Amino acid sequence: MRLAGKTVLITGASQGIGAATAELVASKGARVVLVARSAELLSEHAERIAAIGGRAVVHPADLADSAQIAALAARVLGEFGPPDVLVNNAGVGRWLFLDDTEPDELRNMVALPFTAALELTRALLPAMRERGSGWVVNVNSPVSRLPIPGATGYVTARFALRGLTEALRMDLRGSGIGVSEVVPGKVSSEYFANNAGAEERIPALARLAIPTSTPEKVAAVIASAVERERTEVVFPWQLKAFELTGRLFPALTRYLSWRTGTHR
Questions:
Q1: Which residue in 118, 135, 221, 140 sits closest to 178, CA to CA?
Q2: Is this model's pTM higher than 0.85 or not?
Q3: Contact, 184 vs 210, CB < 8 A?
Q4: How far is it, in rounded angstroms, from Cα 176 to Cα 172?
Q5: In a domain, 132, yes or no
Q6: 218 lies in some domain
Q7: Known catalytic residues?
Q8: How crowded is residue 72: how many other Cβ atoms within 10 Å of its Cβ?
Q9: What secondary structure letter does DSSP report for 141?
Q10: Any idea where the Ketoreductase domain is (predicted)?
Q11: Average pLDDT of each block of 10 consecutive residues along the chain (264 residues)?
């Protein structure tokens, strides 16, 4: 799919991967719809996009709130019709043992990324089906492939997002709507600063073996996945190798993740 002239809706667009993706696809001629909770950060980013000649529209929304998701979808459909590309990128959550996580925090971890992607995609899908074209990108985490100790709620939400991606891919086969899952390794975004203690829970083996990617690198992979209509991208290659090892030697991989991971 060519991005020039397309409408691309990006959640979690105020910083990190979402902001970098918005800037990149705008530079390719797409109109971007920026979604996140902070109206101020979104407006600043829209101004930066306009300064490079891009087009950006700001729609603040808390995607942990189903009513706000429905209102967002209605506004977008009313203003632009169905987006050509939906990038489900929003996600939050500290890495904690299950019994150390408060119930409200667990619900928020599931709401972002899983429930937000589930409900927003559902709200936009009928119009995309009627048009007969479109692309959905779910940005996921390595823990959807390689679970780690000490991050139970976060891992659960990411496995749920993986399940949604696989199920959507089956449902939409032959509809003209494609689905991509992009799974980067560790990213030098604001996530670890916003979720104190998470970085220290990455198993030592993964910290040593998998290099860190920039948000700009992830943005380039997302754009390429849409343009080349790729269904799954796991990167860098070291993470892909770990995933393959997990499939071939699951017991060994689980042991190494536990052995070099977080313990009480």
A1: 135
A2: yes
A3: no
A4: 7
A5: yes
A6: yes
A7: 154
A8: 24
A9: -
A10: 6-186
A11: 97 96 98 97 96 96 97 97 97 92 94 96 98 98 92 96 98 97 93 81 88 96 98 96 92 93 90
